[in-house]
Amino acid sequence: MTTHAPHASHTVTLPASLDEAVAALTAMPAAVPVAGGTDLMAAVNAGLLRPAALVGLGRISEIRGWQYLDGHALLGAGLTLARMGRPDFAALIPGLAAAARAAGPPQIRNAGTLGGNIVTSAPTGDTLPVLAALEATVIIAGPAGARREIPVSHLLAGREMLHPGELVGFVRVPLLHAPQTFLKATGRTGPGRATASVALVLDPARRGVRCAVGAVAAMPLRPLEAEQWVASLIDWDGERGLVPEALTAFGDYVAAACIPDPAPPEDGSEPATLPPAALHLRRTVAALARRALGRALS
């Protein structure tokens, strides 16, 4: 269904299926897809964006739920943050549910969607470090019923991009059946944008720890060496506990990997030091990583 405003520049299309939405975007290359609109409308209201046309995704029921598929959860891109925060979803993917509940006030969670978080790729997007730590993939719908699947980290890093007429339709997340944690720090009390966030998941089947740090860079960062180091210390066949000194060392390892010291000058002069704000951010990341691992192992 299409509603035409007095001027063609205000065309709004409301498709009923994912393929209809793709067809609409293909027919109108200048159109912008919109689901919850929490970021899009903020840009419009600020005068930063004037879309020639909109393709509304709110009527596409196939992307508003989830299903089980071969040891994975197939999540629709239209799932709202509020829906992901409910207890039944939290039992399925607790880290993603925790991130969704922390995403902001109710009006944001009721409108914002998983796919919107991914496509907007804001550094402070709360679901993004969890998806990176879970090594989730996105299923992209294209013209003529085409589908392709890529790691979500590739999309966030710009290694692979959406082509004209394509939409993120689903997110495939492995079901690890193991502890997952998400913690974030904000600049004020109560819901707010993250100044730093940490997602951590245990993968007992592969005897691994996966960690992703959000909000400190343009995309979530994976401290791979810190992950491998701490995984080697865990007794995977026993109680899996670690001494406090190991938790502290892990936090420092993660923080130093994500907020490194400045490179030494080539002329051999006195090396530069991090500014106070960066040092504070490093301490924040270290504390979050330490607590996240401690909670996952407790």
TrEMBL record:
A Gene Ontology molecular function term of the record: oxidoreductase activity
SUPFAM superfamilies registered for this protein in UniProt: CO dehydrogenase flavoprotein C-terminal domain-like, FAD-binding/transporter-associated domain-like
InterPro entries xrefs: CO_DH_flav_C_dom_sf (IPR036683), Diverse_Substr_Oxidored (IPR051312), FAD-bd_PCMH (IPR016166), FAD-bd_PCMH-like_sf (IPR036318), FAD-bd_PCMH_sub1 (IPR016167), FAD-bd_PCMH_sub2 (IPR016169), Mopterin_DH_FAD-bd (IPR002346)
Residue intervals of the FAD-binding PCMH-type domain: 4-178
Entry keyword set: FAD, Flavoprotein, Oxidoreductase
Transmembrane segments: none
Gene3D superfamilies (UniProt xref): 3.30.465.10, CO dehydrogenase flavoprotein, C-terminal domain, Uridine Diphospho-n-acetylenolpyruvylglucosamine Reductase, domain 2
Protein name: Dehydrogenase
Naturally occurring in which organism (per UniProt): Streptomyces inhibens
